[in-house]
Amino acid sequence: MATSTRKFKTTDSTKGGHLTSGIKEDHAEMYEYYDNYVTADSTDHKTRWANQLCWEVARHAVGEEIVVYPLMEKHLGAEGKKFAAEDRADHQKVKERIYKLERMKVGTAEYDNLLLEIMEHLQEHNNSEELNDLPSLEEKLGQEASQSAAASFRRTKKFAPTHAHPSAPNKPPLETLAGFMALPIDKLKDMFMKFPTDDMK
Questions:
Q1: Nearest to 134, CA basis, from 61, 84, 186, 85
Q2: Cis peptide before 173 (omega within 30 of 0)
Q3: d(Cα 143, Cα 111) in Å, to the nearest integer?
Q4: How far does CA 29 lie from the centroid of its chain?
Q5: Structure pTM?
Q6: Distances (CA, A) of 144 to 14, 62, 95
Q7: Cα distances (angstroms) measured from residue 2 to each of 6, 35, 113, 152, 157
Q8: Alpha helices in the chain (DSSP H)
Q9: What are phi and psi for residue 132, nearest 5 degrees?
Q10: In degrees rounded to 5, what are phi and psi of residue 102?
């Protein structure tokens, strides 16, 4: 079996405010969904957890690109622009791989290897956000602005595309417009896809 059983997890950093907590919760969910994929005992269950994972990663990425990265660019100067550019580049690599993954057969060695590659890339990217980007941003925001940003991040995810669109813009306002256009099509796709049942969670 090509899939690794290693445990992905968030960093032990306790720094940050409401925004950091919300983003780390998303990161933890990604790792949980992957672990559930690895331990699933049937192709049906693997398909459901893989779909849930890709769904979460797609929404999370757009939420960060529309809400979090512009805040870095605004409040952190040249360093913030560098963080945002690197993070968008990381997201682009993940989107391209997920787009390819969604067209492959779940449970094959090729699929498992690519999914593991995605998770390893996400782990490195997420750790960098948790240890470097977000602590710097939180210092500038303060608790009230962090709480407001966290709420905006959660709202944005509700209207974000649920599938990877690697050719779409990755900066607002064009990304916001592209997201609104892609969402109805993505929601229609979701209606015909399998996701984890309540009994599986």
A1: 84
A2: yes
A3: 42
A4: 9
A5: 0.89
A6: 18, 23, 32
A7: 12, 14, 6, 39, 32
A8: 18-39, 43-63, 69-75, 77-101, 109-128, 134-158, 174-191
A9: -120, -60
A10: -65, -10
Is residue 178 within 8 Å of residue 168, measured between CB atoms?
yes
The DSSP line for 154-183 is HHHHHTS-SS--TTS--STTHHHHHHHHHH
Q: What are phi and psi of 107, to 5 degrees?
A: 90, -10
In this prediction, residues 111-120 reach a mean pLDDT of 97
Res 2 pLDDT > 50: no
pLDDT in tens, 25-60: 999 999 999 999 999 999 999 999 999 999 999 999
